[in-house]
Amino acid sequence: MKYTYVLFGSLLCLALLSGCEQNPEEEFRDWKEIQNDPPKWFKDAKFGIYFHWGVYTVPAYHSEWYSRNMYFPGSKANQHHLEHYGSLSEFGYKDFVPMFKAENFDPDAWVDLFVRAGARFAGPVAEHADGFSMWDSEVNSWNAQDYGPRIDVVGAMEEAVRKRDLKFITTFHHQWHWGWYPTFKAREEVDAGDSAYSELYGPVVPEAAWKHEDNAPRPDEEFNQVWTAKVKEVIDGYNPDMIYFDTRLGHIKEPYRKEIVTRFLESNSRRGKKGQGVILHKHNDLPADVSVRNHEKSRINQLSDYVWQTEEPITTFSWSYTQDMELRPAEDILHGIVDVVSKNGVYLLNIAPKSDGTIPADQKEILLSIGQWLDNYGEAIYGTRPWYRYGEGPRYAAENSKDETDEAYHELNYTAGDIRYTTKGDIVYAILLGQPEENQQIELEAFSQEMVPESFRVSEVSLLGTDEKPEWIQPAQGEELMVTLPHGIPATMAAVLKITTSPD
User: Fold this and answer.
1) pTM, two decimal places
2) 132-170 pLDDT tens trace
3) 262 phi and psi, to 5 degrees?
4) CATH assignment, 5-24+38-53+92-173+219-296
5) CA distances from 432 to 104, 206, 426 (A)
6) Closest Cα to residue 145, out of 94, 191, 97, 178?
7) Would you give the DSSP letter of residue 469?
8) What does residue 95 show for φ and ψ, rounded to 5 degrees?
């Protein structure tokens, strides 16, 4: 049964939302009352995988924004749609839903791949901006259980993730749903103007909201309630360890954002996991005391006092599968992981399954290459903490010449001359972002006694992956640690020196 958006909104509080018994304006006037510090497991995990997978993978064209851009006259997606599917009044986004069958979806196989890739947390995009929920929703009848694949994708992934003892993440992008479609247009022009499909396409908004103009009206009370109800369903029904919010969360009224944060923290407490949940946001949509900041396709260029996260796609552009997508080399992704971890960050990689539920072989190959490296050298990543400086080399010098608030775009190239540091107890790991040469001499400037904040001495240096011992010279006052690599060093995407220290 299809409800109109207006009818659903009028019944929402009575039928579904126990949280509507109180006005959110009356609760939690101060964010400090719901403070949430990042737990140790998150700081230790370092690497997770999620995926953009939904109805937008059926046309598999340009990007996950196809559902929006297909309605923009003259856009690539619009031209493609008119050529391949015809008039927008006759064949709209809703008509892709029955074509999203996911006939080869195997959640256990997916999670097995994520484990082999070295991920410590994983999960789905619960709802993208397109208005299609990937769980068995009572709030939104346009959901994966009732339409399309007829599978509770979020539920299936939660079960598979829990079986492998990973942490479970769900991400939410539906704050973009306000103005995602041109609902102000006439039904004769586009199907999004038909109120019969308002649950999928959202409420009628003015053209300014569709064009995302700065002076456009923000989401109304009814939209805020529906948005909140969806997130609550996932929190209450699937108990995610992590919830992530894409940009435009700031468009949701503050009382509702506080209500969601509170609901998530209470859910963790009920499960005996108080203080173990992670909330992720972008920009300044939530306070730092409540949530971990996420950086999209970018990284901070300094060592941070607080833990943060970056998310990057396995592709060079789109976050979802497209027919002409280009993939990033495994080496580049791995170097990104190392760089982020050295700066006190956590790395979230997005993959792009096909609409039929298969993960393409070339993406699997990348994941398994990363997993092989982590299997061999993961002690330099998992459970580590940043050292007093994150690195040295050409890229380090370039980054430190910029303002500390700058971000580095994710597609960066490194060499073995770029070194990143992590530490664990009395061990310092020096990770060379590339393949060094046999018998090469490495100068580790960061070990200069004039620079290190605490006095210590080096007692042992080894090269992970080989029994051959490198030669090294204990630095004198004010000098670098000099390491000469052995003959027959292993081929690797990043070499790791393990340096044992002790107090001087």
Assistant:
1) 0.94
2) 999 999 999 999 999 999 999 999 999 999 999 999 999
3) -60, -45
4) 3.20.20.80
5) 40, 53, 20
6) 97
7) P
8) -80, -10
